[in-house]
Amino acid sequence: WIIEIRKTLDEDLEEDTEIPVSIFNVPKTLMASDPDSYIPQQVALGPHHHLRPELFHEMQRYKLAAAKRAQTQLQRPKFQQLVDHLINHEPRIRACYHEYLQFNGQTLAWMMLLDASFLLEFLHNYCSFKEGMVPPARMLHLFDVAGTKSAHNAILRDMVMLENQIPLFLLRKMLEFQFPSLESADDALLLMLVGFYKELSPFSFREL
Asked: What Pfam families has UniProt attached to this entry (predicted)?
């Protein structure tokens, strides 16, 4: 603990203090009155619910499989560059959260890498279904564009929970390593987020 405090005090956080908090804790009164509305049931994303055993043991293999596929796609040297990049962005990651995170830098970076790999694969598969592509075999029972599988619906529900979040810039950063240009990475992320929004929205959309 002392080592972590010294490290934090020694770092130049002038730039990071300008980063607004974007991931907040649920007020205790709300959590106490209706915990099921704020505690994820299928997948933990980010540090708040990471150590819940029922979520960790259920979904960790899917996260690891997604990260393994990302490693294969990027190849080891570039994948290690991504890991190092996330470690270097530790202060920025911490600045996004409302509370102090009780994880060291290495653990936090790898946690974010696994969660971002899983999220991107889940979002990408939703968009890809419209193009006739099939998700990886390990994801088949989790992903269902028709929304008839309970795991799929539970993941969607968990992804919008207040505490169950990772910073958006991490998804963008991972895509930067996967695409030839920043513009193409941003285009891909936009398509994923629009597809996710359409999946959750109660309104219907006309294709332009």
From this structure: DUF247
- Residue 76's domain comprises 17-33+41-200
Please state which of the ranges 49-58, 163-172, 194-203 shows the lowest mean pLDDT. Answer: 194-203
Among 50, 198, 183, 202, which Cα is nearest to 112's?
50
38: number of Cβ within 10 Å: 19
**pLDDT per residue over 119-141, tens digit each?**
999 998 766 544 444 455 555 55
> Are the beta carbons of 87 and 141 closer than 8 angstroms?
no
Helices and strands of the chain, counted as H and E runs: 9, 0
Which residue has tokens 């987020």?
Answer: 193
Residue 10 lies in a domain: no
Is residue 8, in this structure, part of any structural domain at all?
Answer: no
pLDDT of residue 9: 63
Confidence category of residue 1, pLDDT binned at 50, 70, 90: low
